[in-house]
Description:
The protein is an alpha+beta fold. Helices cover 37% and strands 16% of the residues. The longest helix has 16 residues, at 30-45.
Amino acid sequence: xxxxxxxxxxxxxxxxxxxxxxxxxxxxxxxxxxxxxxxxxxxxxxxxxxxxxxxxxxxxxxxxxxxxxxxxxxxxxxxxxxxxxxxxxxxxxxxxxxxxxxxxxxxxxxxxxx
Length: 114
């Protein structure tokens, strides 16, 4: 499996939730590898929403809590271990931290890094 590991810094809006992302190529085997990895993440950590929806749901939930509405728990589709993005420009899996990244790399040792 080929992917690039990047550490999120101030340029990335999801930095306050995730420490790394794994990026897959847009062509050749990239789409297949992305979906294989996404399925594995789902099997290991459970379902999660796509990153833009994930962040919207979380922010909306926080607004409900401010006004004392009835959302007691964070919705289950906001999985703090991982999320993903699949668009024309990107195929990424966001991971919470070092433990999640190491576990992924145990399954698929990295072949390319930046």
